C-alpha cells in the first residue's frame, strides 16, 4: 500500500502538466484546511495515548476517502482520457476505506470510542478553479501517502504494546 | 485675456493651497492681487469693448462675450444692440450675452459700454461663420465591467434632441489603466443624431484581466452639423469614470480557467500583497510586468496547444504559490462525412467524423446537436472523452409518415461553432440489420425453401435480397429476389433449379428495393438436397475372357451429378434372341461382373439403383467383329496426354471406344476405356495412372449394330525415357584382326521407350588400366558404330591388330536418351607365323655361333691358353676384355645362356607415326633400328639390370610427348618380368613428368632430376637401375650442370642400350670406375651397349 501511494502521487503529477509533472516537483506549502496533515513532531506523536493516536488516524482516513472521491471527480473533468489515473484514484479510495475499517475494528477491539463520521468537505470545494483542483489533488495524494506511512508506524507501535 | 488668466490663476492657486500655506505668506498674495488691479486700471485707458467672440453648444443659442474696455470693472453696464429683424437692444451688467442664433449673413452688433458715466461704443459684424460649435462634454451614464470576459461596457446619452437630425457625431473614448492613468486605448466611434436623446453603448475587451488594475474611461464628442457653417470644435472630456475589482475570494491570479484559441496572446496577472518572485507558464519563466502595488502581470504570445488538463500558469511568492490554468485549443472542425441512414426504418442513425481534434476535453469538449428542421426536433451528443478520429453517432427517432429529413449537425465548444447539413430521403437510405434465424427446408430434390427473420418496419417498402448458393467444386451462384417488406417479421422464399443429393451452402443478405447498402451476410446454412433416380446408366464395357467363354462386364461408377443419390446396387442382364441371363443386386463398390455365355451375340444392359429408383439401362453388344487388316502402330504422348486420331468410318454407327492397358500385363488387360461419339475422329486419352517410360497398349474399337470391331492397335508412351539397362552382348569369335560381337534384345519394361538403335564403341585398352575414359569425350581414338537396323544382332569389327586388347562398349538408345553402357575387353589372337619366325631365327643363329666358336676354340686351344691363360699371366697383355668385346661384337650367341629361365618376350610398338615393324622378341630386333644415330640429346645412362619375368602384363603406355616419333605408341609386354627398381623413390616419381610416370614404369623410374641425388646414388643406380630403353630421352637432359655427364659435349653422349641386354647379363654389369662411357656417335648401337670401358 505504501508503494502504491507513491505510484499514485507520481501518476497524478504526470497528468497535471508542467510544473507539476516536472521531476522533483514539491510544494509543501500547499495544504488543505479540510485535511489534517500527517506531519507531527515525533515527541508529540509518541506521547499520544492509543485512543488519541488511533482516532486521529481514523479521522484522517475518513477525510482521505472523501477527498479521494473529490479528486477523482475533479480529474474526470480535467483528464477524462486517462483511465489509468482514474483507476488508481478509485483503488486508493477503496484502500483508504479498507484501512479505515481496520482501524475502527482495532479501536473496537481495544474498547475505544469511535468518533462519529462527519462530512469533512462541507460545501466549500465546489466551484474551485482548475488550478485549485490540481493543487488539492496534489495535497490529497501526497497526504494519503504520508498518512499511510504514519498508520504503519501507529500500528507497529500498537503491535509492540499488544503482542499477539 | 491676459488679465483674466492672471486673475484666475492666483485664485486657483489660493483655492488649492489656502489651507496649507502658512499665514505669513498671505501678505505676498495680497500684494500680487493689488498689482493685478493696478494693471486693470491702466488698461481702462485704452477705450472700447473688443474681441467679441461667440460660441454655441446647441446651435440655437449663441453665447457671445467680449472684453471690457480697459480700466472698467464692476459696475460697467453694456448696451448691446443687434441688428437683426427685430433690432433688439439688451442692457447687461456682464460682458457676455446669450442670443438666439442669428440668421445666416452679417449682423451688426453694437456694444455700448457705460462706466462711471463714460461711454464707449464698439461695433462688431457677427456672422454664423464666426461662431464656434463646442458641444457640451458628454456625460457617462454608466461604466460597467464583465470581469469574466475582461470587457468594459460604456453607456452615454448623445442628447440628440437639441441638435438637428442627421448630424454626424464623432465620439472619442479614452481608456486609461492603473493609478498613473496610462493611456491604453483611444478609440473613435461615429454615430448620427436622430433628433432624439439616444443612449449609446460601447464595449471594449481588455487584453489584461480587469481585475489586475484600475481602469479609467473618458469621452468627448465632435458634432459635424451640416447646417452649421461656423467653426466646429471637440467638446471637453467628460469626467473620468473608473472600474476596479474588489477581491471577493481567495483567488489571486486572473484569468481563471479560460479557454483560448491556440496562437493567441494572453495576459495573466496576480493580485498580491506580497512580492511576486517568479512567474512561469508550464516550466518556462516569464518576465514580470509590474502593476499597482505588488501586483504583477505576464504576457504570453502565441500560446501553444494545451494538454488535456490545461496549461498551468504559476506565480510564486515568498511562501506560497498561486496559479491558474489556461486551456488553449481549437474551435470545432466542420463535422465530416455526415451520414444518416436507418437499419430498421424506426430510428435514424447519423454518424460523422469530428475532424481536427480541438484539444479540449471534459466540460470544454465539443457538444453536438442534430437538428431536424421539418419536425423541429433535435438530439444532442456530448463526448466528454478525449476526441479521437473515430466516428461519432446519434440516434434520431423517425417521425411517422415523414420520409424527407433535413438534418443540421451543430458543433460548438467554448471557442466556436460549426455545422454540417444533410437532406435525406430516408427510404433510400435503408441498410437492414443482418438477417437472423436463417434456416432451409426441402421442397423436393431440386428445390428448397429459405426462411429468415429481419427486424425493422419495412411494411412500406420492398426488400431486395441476395441468396448466395455454394456447391462443392462449383462456382458460387448469386440469386436476387424481391419480396414485400413486413414489420418485424419472418420472410420465406423458394429456391429451385438445384441438383438432387447435393450439399449446398446458403447465405442471405437484404437491402431496400432501391438498394443503397446490403446488410451483412446471414449465418451460412448447409443443406443436402434429397435423392432422385439416377439420370443415366453407367458407362459400360466388356471383354471376353482369355478362353473366350466368359464375358467380363465392366462399368464405371456414376458421377455424382448423374447418380442423384447414393448408388446401392447394379443389375446386369445379358439377353439374346433366345435367352436372358441376369445378375441382380450387385452391391455398389463392385463394378465388374462375369457371365458365362454360350455364344457371343448378346446385348448386355447395366442398371444403377439408388434409394429412389433405377437408372435407364446402358446397353452394349458382346460381339467382337474380327478385323484382319490390323497392324500395331506407335505413338508418343504430349505432356500427360496421348492423342489418337483416325479416319471417319460411316460404318461405325454408335460410338468409338478406346481402351488401354499396360502392355506388359497379360490378357485380358483393361486399365480404362473411353467412349467418344461416332462423329469424332480423335480422342485425347488422359489418365492419372499414366507413367513416363511405361509402354501402354491402346485399342480403338468402332461400334456397329451387332458389336465392336477392333480398328487399330497402338502402343505408346506418355513420355519416352532412356533404357535402364545395357544390351547383353557376347564375343562370338576373335581372330588376329577381327572380333565378332553378338547381343540380345532388352526387355520392354527396361527399354522405357521405343528402341531407336545401338551405339557400339571400341578402342584399344586394357581392363585394369585406371584410365577408363568417358566415351562421349570425343576422343579420336574411339571408334563408334551406330547401329540403327534393329534387326541386326551381330557386328564384326575388322582391321584390328593381333594380340591386342580391345575395349568394347555397347549402349542402346531411345528417343528418351542413351542407356547405360556395357563394356568388355577382348584380346585379339596373335599372328602365329611371325611368332615362329621370331623364335626360330635367334635360336638358329645362336646355335651356329656356338658351334663356330667351339670349333675355333678347340683348334686354337694352345694359342688361347698361351694368350689368355698363361701359366704366368701378364696383366699388361691381358686381352680378356678385348676378347670379350671381340667375341661379343656382332654376336649374340652368349645371350642364349641367359635365356634358359625365360620365355620369349615380345616388345611391340604400335601406332607410331612412322609405321614401325612389329617387334617380337627383343633379342632379335634391338632398338638400334628405332633410334636414329643423330639423337645427340641422348646422354649416357645408368645401366639397368633387366630381369624379365613371365607374367603377362598388359599395360597401355602412352609414349612421352617428347618422343621423337611424335605419336602415341602402345607397348605391350608379354612374359616380361618385373623390372621395377627397388631404389626408385616415390618422390622421384612425382618429380618426373606425370605422363612419363603413367606409362612404362621400368623406363621411368630414373633418378634423373637431382644431380646431387644422381651423383650420390650413381653407383647404386648403375647396379640396380633397370631397363632403360629409348623412351623419354629428353628427361635425360634434366641432369644438372654439376653432374659429371652434364659437362660432356653432345658428341660425348653415350648411347644407351636396349632391353635386349637381358640376354647377356654380364655385359650389363656397370664399370666400377666413375668415368662415363663415351660414345663416338650421337646414336647408340648394339655394340655400344657392351662398351663398359672407354676406348680400352
Report the span from N to C terminus of chain B.
176 Å
Number of strands of chain B: 63
Instruction: Identify the biggest protein-protein contact and residues per side.
Output: A-B, 22 and 29 residues
N-to-C SSE string of chain A, H for helix and E for strand = HHHHH
Fraction of helical residues of chain B: 10-25%
SSE class of chain B: mainly beta
SS summary, helix count of chain B: 13
- For the residues shown, what is the average pLDDT of chain B? 77
Number of strands of chain A: 0
Total of helices of chain A: 5
Q: What's the assembly state of these chains?
A: heterodimer
Membrane topology (chain B): Single-pass type I membrane protein
GO molecular function (chain B): ciliary neurotrophic factor receptor binding; cytokine binding; growth factor binding; leukemia inhibitory factor receptor activity; oncostatin-M receptor activity
GO cellular component, one term (chain B): receptor complex
Organism (chain B): Chinchilla lanigera
Distinctive features:
heterodimer; A: 164 residues; mainly alpha; 65% helix; 0% strand; elongated; B: 1096 residues; mainly beta; 6-stranded mixed sheet; 11% helix; disordered N terminus
Amino acid at each position: 500500500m505504501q508503494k502504491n501511494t507513491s505510484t499514485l502521487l507520481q501518476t497524478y503529477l504526470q497528468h497535471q502538466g508542467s510544473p507539476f509533472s516536472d521531476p522533483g516537483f514539491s510544494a509543501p506549502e500547499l495544504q488543505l484546511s479540510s485535511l489534517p496533515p500527517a506531519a507531527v513532531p515525533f515527541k508529540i506523536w509518541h506521547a499520544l495515548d492509543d485512543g488519541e493516536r488511533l482516532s486521529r488516524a481514523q479521522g484522517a482516513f475518513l477525510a482521505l476517502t472523501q477527498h479521494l472521491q473529490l479528486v477523482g471527480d475533479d480529474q474526470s473533468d480535467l483528464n477524462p482520457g486517462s483511465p489509468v489515473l482514474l483507476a488508481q484514484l478509485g483503488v486508493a479510495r477503496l484502500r483508504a476505506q479498507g484501512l479505515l475499517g481496520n482501524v475502527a475494528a482495532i479501536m473496537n477491539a481495544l474498547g475505544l470510542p469511535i468518533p462519529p463520521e462527519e462530512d469533512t468537505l462541507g460545501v466549500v470545494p465546489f466551484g474551485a478553479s482548475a488550478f485549485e483542483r490540481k493543487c488539492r489533488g496534489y495535497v490529497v495524494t501526497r497526504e494519503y501517502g504520508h498518512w499511510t506511512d504514519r498508520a504503519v508506524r501507529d500500528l507497529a507501535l500498537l503491535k509492540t504494546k499488544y503482542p499477539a | 485675456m491676459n488679465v483674466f488668466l492672471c486673475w484666475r490663476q492666483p485664485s486657483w492657486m489660493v483655492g488649492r493651497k489656502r489651507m496649507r500655506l502658512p499665514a505669513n505668506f498671505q501678505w505676498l498674495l495680497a500684494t500680487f492681487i493689488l498689482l493685478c488691479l493696478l494693471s486693470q486700471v491702466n488698461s481702462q485707458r485704452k477705450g472700447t469693448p473688443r474681441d467679441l467672440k461667440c460660441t454655441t453648444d446647441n446651435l440655437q443659442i449663441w453665447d457671445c462675450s467680449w472684453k471690457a474696455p480697459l480700466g472698467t470693472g464692476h459696475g460697467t453696464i453694456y448696451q448691446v444692440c443687434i441688428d437683426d429683424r427685430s433690432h433688439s437692444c439688451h442692457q447687461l451688467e456682464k460682458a457676455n450675452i446669450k442670443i438666439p442664433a442669428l440668421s445666416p449673413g452679417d449682423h451688426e452688433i453694437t456694444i455700448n459700454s457705460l462706466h462711471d458715466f463714460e461711454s464707449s461704443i464698439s461695433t462688431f459684424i457677427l456672422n454664423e461663420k464666426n461662431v464656434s460649435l463646442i458641444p457640451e462634454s458628454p456625460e457617462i451614464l454608466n461604466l460597467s465591467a464583465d470581469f469574466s470576459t475582461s470587457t468594459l461596457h460604456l453607456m452615454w446619452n448623445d442628447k440628440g434632441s437639441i441638435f438637428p437630425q442627421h448630424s454626424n457625431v464623432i465620439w472619442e473614448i479614452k481608456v486609461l489603466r492603473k493609478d498613473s492613468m496610462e493611456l491604453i486605448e483611444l478609440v473613435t466611434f461615429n454615430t448620427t443624431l436622430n433628433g432624439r436623446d439616444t443612449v449609446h453603448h460601447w464595449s471594449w475587451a481588455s487584453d489584461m484581466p480587469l481585475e489586475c488594475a484600475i481602469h479609467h474611461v473618458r469621452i468627448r464628442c465632435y458634432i459635424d452639423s451640416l447646417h452649421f457653417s461656423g467653426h466646429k470644435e471637440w467638446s471637453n472630456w467628460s469626467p473620468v469614470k473608473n472600474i476596479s475589482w474588489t477581491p471577493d475570494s481567495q483567488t489571486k491570479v486572473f484569468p481563471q480557467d479560460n479557454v483560448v484559441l491556440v496562437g493567441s496572446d494572453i495576459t495573466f496577472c496576480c493580485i498580491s500583497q506580497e512580492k511576486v518572485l517568479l512567474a512561469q507558464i508550464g516550466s518556462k519563466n516569464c518576465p514580470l510586468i509590474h502593476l499597482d502595488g505588488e501586483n504583477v502581470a505576464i504576457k504570453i504570445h502565441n500560446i501553444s496547444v494545451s494538454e488535456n488538463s490545461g496549461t498551468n500558469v504559476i506565480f510564486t511568492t515568498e511562501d506560497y504559490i498561486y496559479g491558474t490554468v489556461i486551456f488553449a485549443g481549437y474551435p470545432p472542425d466542420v463535422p465530416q462525412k455526415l451520414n444518416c441512414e436507418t437499419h430498421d426504418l424506426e430510428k435514424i442513425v447519423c454518424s460523422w467524423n469530428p475532424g481536427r481534434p480541438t484539444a479540449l476535453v471534459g466540460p470544454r469538449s465539443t457538444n453536438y446537436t442534430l437538428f431536424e428542421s421539418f419536425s423541429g426536433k433535435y438530439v444532442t451528443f456530448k463526448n466528454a472523452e478525449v476526441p479521437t478520429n473515430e466516428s461519432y453517432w446519434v440516434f434520431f427517432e423517425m417521425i411517422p409518415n415523414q420520409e424527407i429529413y433535413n438534418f443540421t449537425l451543430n458543433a460548438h465548444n467554448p471557442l466556436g461553432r460549426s455545422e454540417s447539413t444533410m437532406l435525406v430521403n430516408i427510404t433510400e437510405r435503408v441498410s437492414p440489420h443482418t438477417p437472423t434465424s436463417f434456416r432451409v427446408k426441402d421442397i423436393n430434390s431440386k428445390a428448397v425453401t429459405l426462411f429468415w427473420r429481419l427486424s425493422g418496419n419495412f411494411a412500406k417498402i420492398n426488400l431486395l435480397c441476395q441468396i448466395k448458393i455454394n456447391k462443392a467444386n462449383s462456382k458460387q451462384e448469386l440469386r436476387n429476389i424481391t419480396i414485400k417488406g413486413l414489420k418485424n417479421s419472418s420472410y420465406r422464399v423458394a429456391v429451385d433449379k438445384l441438383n438432387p443429393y447435393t450439399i449446398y451452402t446458403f447465405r442471405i443478405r437484404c437491402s431496400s428495393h432501391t438498394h443503397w447498402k446490403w446488410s451483412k451476410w446471414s449465418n451460412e446454412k448447409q443443406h443436402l438436397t434429397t435423392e432422385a433416380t439416377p439420370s443415366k446408366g453407367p458407362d459400360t464395357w466388356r471383354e471376353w475372357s482369355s478362353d473366350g467363354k466368359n464375358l467380363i462386364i465392366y462399368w464405371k461408377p456414376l458421377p455424382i451429378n448423374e447418380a442423384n443419390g447414393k448408388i446401392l446396387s447394379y443389375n446386369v442382364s445379358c439377353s439374346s434372341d433366345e435367352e436372358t441371363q441376369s445378375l441382380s443386386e450387385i452391391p455398389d463398390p463392385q463394378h465388374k461382373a462375369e457371365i458365362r455365355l454360350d455364344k457371343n451375340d448378346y446385348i448386355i444392359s447395366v442398371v444403377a439403383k439408388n434409394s429412389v429408383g433405377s437408372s435407364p439401362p446402358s446397353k452394349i453388344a458382346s460381339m467382337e467383329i474380327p478385323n484382319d487388316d490390323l497392324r500395331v502402330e506407335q505413338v508418343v504422348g504430349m505432356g500427360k496426354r496421348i492423342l489418337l486420331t483416325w479416319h471417319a468410318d460411316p460404318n461405325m454407327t454408335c460410338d468409338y471406344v478406346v481402351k488401354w492397358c499396360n502392355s506388359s500385363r497379360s490378357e485380358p488387360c483393361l486399365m480404362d476405356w473411353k467412349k467418344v461419339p461416332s462423329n469424332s475422329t480423335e480422342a485425347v486419352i488422359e489418365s492419372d495412372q499414366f507413367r513416363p517410360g511405361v509402354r501402354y497398349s491402346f485399342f480403338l474399337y468402332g461400334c456397329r449394330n451387332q458389336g465392336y470391331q477392333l480398328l487399330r492397335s497402338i502402343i505408346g508412351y506418355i513420355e519416352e525415357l532412356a533404357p535402364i539397362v545395357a544390351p547383353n552382348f557376347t564375343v562370338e569369335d576373335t581372330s588376329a584382326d577381327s572380333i565378332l560381337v553378338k547381343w540380345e534384345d532388352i526387355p520392354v519394361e527396361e527399354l522405357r521407350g521405343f528402341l531407336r538403335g545401338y551405339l557400339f564403341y571400341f578402342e584399344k585398352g586394357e581392363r585394369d588400366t585406371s584410365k577408363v575414359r568417358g566415351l562421349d569425350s570425343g576422343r579420336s581414338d574411339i571408334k563408334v558404330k551406330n547401329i540403327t537396323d534393329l534387326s541386326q544382332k551381330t557386328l564384326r569389327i575388322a582391321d584390328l591388330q593381333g594380340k591386342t586388347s580391345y575395349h568394347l562398349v555397347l549402349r542402346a538408345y531411345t528417343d528418351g536418351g542413351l542407356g547405360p553402357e556395357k563394356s568388355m575387353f577382348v584380346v585379339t589372337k596373335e599372328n602365329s607365323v611371325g611368332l615362329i619366325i621370331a623364335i626360330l631365327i635367334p635360336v638358329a643363329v645362336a646355335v651356329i655361333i656356338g658351334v663356330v666358336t667351339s670349333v675355333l676354340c678347340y683348334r686354337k686351344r694352345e694359342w688361347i691358353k698361351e694368350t689368355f691363360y698363361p701359366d704366368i699371366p701378364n696383366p699388361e697383355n691381358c686381352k680378356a676384355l678385348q676378347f670379350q668385346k671381340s667375341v661379343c661384337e656382332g654376336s649374340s650367341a652368349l645371350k642364349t645362356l641367359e635365356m634358359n629361365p625365360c620365355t620369349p618376350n615380345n616388345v611391340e610398338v604400335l601406332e607410331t607415326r612412322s609405321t614401325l615393324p612389329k617387334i617380337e622378341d627383343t633379342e632379335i630386333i634391338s632398338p638400334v633400328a628405332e633410334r636414329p644415330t643423330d639423337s645427340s640429346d641422348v646422354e649416357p645412362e645408368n645401366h639397368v639390370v633387366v630381369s624379365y619375368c613371365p607374367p603377362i602384363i598388359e599395360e597401355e603406355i602412352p609414349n612421352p610427348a617428347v618422343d621423337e616419333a611424335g605419336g602415341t605408341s602402345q607397348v605391350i609386354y608379354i612374359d616380361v618380368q618385373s623390372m621395377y627398381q627397388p631404389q626408385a623413390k616415390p618422390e622421384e616419381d612425382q618429380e618426373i613428368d606425370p605422363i612419363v610416370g603413367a606409362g612404362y614404369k621400368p623406363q621411368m623410374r630414373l633418378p634423373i632430376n637431382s644431380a646431387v641425388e644422381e651423383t650420390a646414388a650413381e653407383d647404386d643406380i648403375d647396379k640396380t637401375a633397370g631397363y632403360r630403353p629409348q623412351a623419354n630421352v629428353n628427361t635425360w637432359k634434366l641432369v644438372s650442370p654439376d653432374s659429371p655427364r652434364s659437362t660432356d659435349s653432345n658428341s660425348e653422349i653415350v648411347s644407351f642400350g636396349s632391353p635386349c641386354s637381358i640376354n647377356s647379363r654380364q655385359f650389363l654389369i656397370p664399370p666400377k670406375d666413375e668415368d662415363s662411357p663415351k660414345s663416338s656417335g650421337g646414336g647408340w648401337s648394339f655394340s655400344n651397349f657392351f662398351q663398359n670401358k672407354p676406348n680400352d
